[in-house]
Amino acid sequence: MNIESAIYIVATPIGNLGDMTHRALEVLAQADLVAAEDTRQTRKLLDHYAITSRLLALHDHNELVVARELIARVQQGQRVALVSDAGTPLISDPGYNLVALAHDEGVRVVPIPGPSAVISALCVSGLACDRFVFEGFLPAKAQARLKLLQASMQEPRSLVFYESPHRILDTLMAMNTLFPQRRLTLARELTKRFETIRRATVAELLNWVNEDGDQLRGEFVLVLEGAVPEVVELASLRPALERVMQELPTKKAVSLVADLYGANKKALYDLALQIKAN
């Protein structure tokens, strides 16, 4: 496969080098330039596959400047690949400004799919993954971390977080303060030798990590169970429904009360018919 002039967003292994795709290897081998967050880390990866493509650093501190250089190179006919230290670029890693600028300038951007710690953790979490929210890394400061978690307490979708070894215990303690019985899956060192995947309540995982110091090592993905909506007793909504029905047609009254209280519209409509019949 001969690749054309474009910016290629190339996913690389998150641990196990066996997860490198053939297409990713072809793109990296043919790229005129490989932009990487940490060129030393990426050089080890390229050396492993005997790839000699030139490297250029692209990170949070220089992305705005380097992005323009890379766009100019592609406009001149070169082929540029973007990689992160591990996994899929742009997911809690640099690259957004480069891709946004490429679209602004009409430069082709090509995804080269592959490993992703977020998706890998979700798939093995044993929690709902049809709809989820990815929050990336939680704030480093305790108050800001707690505030973000508090804001997520009523989120019904599964929540996915990245966490580092020196903050994992603080994060589990913060979660335990807010929702100790919520289910949580801790995925540590995914695809690596000491991979650990465990689902339990937040309180149980906190105790487990406290008792086993080895679980404080490595990189983490946390998948938190979404909030379960509270069941609204239909009878308790009768006074509100009666009052709203005095001002609005039945269907509009039912729709308004259902939206306000999260009640089932069909059951609420049946209640409205009973009210009208009395």
Poorly predicted regions: none
Share of helix, binned: 40-55%
Major β-sheet strand ordering: 3-2-4-1-5
- The count of helical stretches stands at 11
What coarse outline follows from CA principal-axis ratios? Answer: globular
% residues in beta strands? 15-25%
Total count of strands: 10
Biggest beta sheet attributes: 5 strands, parallel
What is the H/E string?
EHEHEHEHEHEHEHEEHEHHH
Topology readout:
Layout: E1 7-10, H1 22-30, E2 33-36, H2 39-48, E3 55-57, H3 63-75, E4 80-83, H4 96-104, E5 109-112, H5 117-124, E6 132-137, H6 142-151, E7 158-163, H7 168-178, E8 183-188, E9 196-201, H8 202-211, E10 220-224, H9 238-245, H10 250-261, H11 265-277
Parallel strand pairs: 1-4, 1-5, 2-3, 2-4, 6-7
Antiparallel strand pairs: 7-10, 8-9, 8-10
Task: Provide tags for this entry.
5-stranded mixed sheet, alpha/beta, 5-stranded parallel sheet, 278 residues
Explain this structure:
By secondary structure, the protein is an alpha/beta fold. The protein has helices spanning 22-30, 39-48, 63-75, 96-104, 117-124, 142-151, 168-178, 202-211, 238-245, 250-261, 265-277, and strands at 7-10, 33-36, 55-57, 80-83, 109-112, 132-137, 158-163, 183-188, 196-201, 220-224. The strands form two sheets. Strands 3-2-4-1-5 form a five-stranded parallel β-sheet, with helices on both faces. A five-stranded mixed β-sheet has the order 6-7-10-8-9. Helix 3 (63-75) crosses helix 4 (96-104), helix 7 packs antiparallel against helix 8 and helix 10 crosses helix 11 (265-277). The termini are far apart. The model has no long low-confidence stretch (mean pLDDT 94).
